[in-house]
Structure formats: structure tokens, C-alpha cells
Specification:
Largest sheet: 4 strands, mixed
Distance between the termini: 43 Å
Oligomer: single chain
Order of helices and strands: EHEEEEHEEEHHH
């Protein structure tokens, strides 16, 4: 078990979101699920009686918890997950999958998935690339990162 585990709050669609993340990343797996009880719930919890409360899952050895709850909270850009990519093909792959079906492009390699969770899709050598003359100016003009442009 990880010492620190990100907990992600979903608006009643945690199972759908976990299935999406498992489809994105190879070798992802569900560790376990917990369920809301069927009685003794507060009024706002009653619609969830007997349904999935949390899904514990693993992506690349990092454990996450997807909490199935209401719309009291939502994701924003103050927290994001970085995907370090080995090459442009991998950047393109994750960018296309994450922004498809209701996701959104942002700038400088940032995007959101259809659940509004923010991602940074970067080459694994982004720190080195940013040391090149003019790299920051080029990056600020991009949505999806283009390694060839940063190298030019």
C-alpha cells in the first residue's frame, strides 16, 4: 500500500471513470471495492444505498481511490496528474484518448478528461527541453506538446 493515495471524488460515476482509466493505461487493475450500507444513511446518502462507495485501483504501481458521491465537490486545475511520455507517439496517444468524448484541451500540455480531471502530458525529458533557447515561448503557443517544435 502507498503511504499517500490520491482520493478522487466523482459525481456518482466512479465505476465508469475507473473503467475509463483502466482502458487508458496498460496493466491497471482494480484492487477492491467497498459499498454504501443499505440502511442508517443520512438523507443525502440514501440515493447511494447499496451502491459502490469507493473503488481502490492501481495504475503503474500508484494506488488511487475513486469515491462515488454527489456533486458537492469537483475537480479543478489546482491538482493534475502528469504522464511522462517516451516519445511523440505516446504523447499523441494519451492526448487523443483523454480529450476524446467530452474531454478538453488546454495549454502547455494540459488537458482534462470527460470527468474534468486535469492531466499534464509531457515528454519524459521536459525539464531538459525547457532549457533550450526559446523553448518557453514555443511551449506557451502549444496545446498538445510537439517535441519537434521544442527541438527546433
Amino acid at each position: 500500500m502507498n503511504k499517500i493515495t490520491p482520493n478522487l471524488w466523482f459525481n456518482g460515476n466512479a465505476a465508469e471513470a475507473v473503467d475509463f482509466y483502466l482502458s487508458l493505461f496498460p496493466n491497471g487493475k482494480i484492487i477492491s471495492r467497498s459499498y454504501y450500507p443499505t440502511d442508517g444513511l443520512l438523507d443525502f446518502q440514501k440515493p447511494f444505498a447499496g451502491k459502490v462507495l469507493a473503488i481502490y485501483f492501481d495504475l503503474f504501481g500508484q494506488q488511487f481511490t475513486a469515491i462515488n458521491a454527489g456533486n458537492e465537490f469537483s475537480f479543478n486545475e489546482s491538482v493534475s496528474f502528469n504522464i511522462s511520455c517516451k516519445d511523440q507517439a505516446e504523447i499523441d496517444h494519451y492526448w487523443e484518448k483523454i480529450t476524446a468524448h467530452g474531454g478538453a484541451e488546454s495549454v502547455c500540455g494540459w488537458c482534462k478528461d470527460k470527468y474534468c480531471l486535469s492531466w499534464q502530458i509531457n515528454p519524459e525529458n521536459i525539464e531538459e527541453l525547457m532549457l533550450r533557447p526559446g523553448a518557453w515561448e514555443k511551449l506557451l503557443q502549444m496545446k498538445k506538446i510537439d517535441i519537434a517544435v521544442l527541438l527546433s
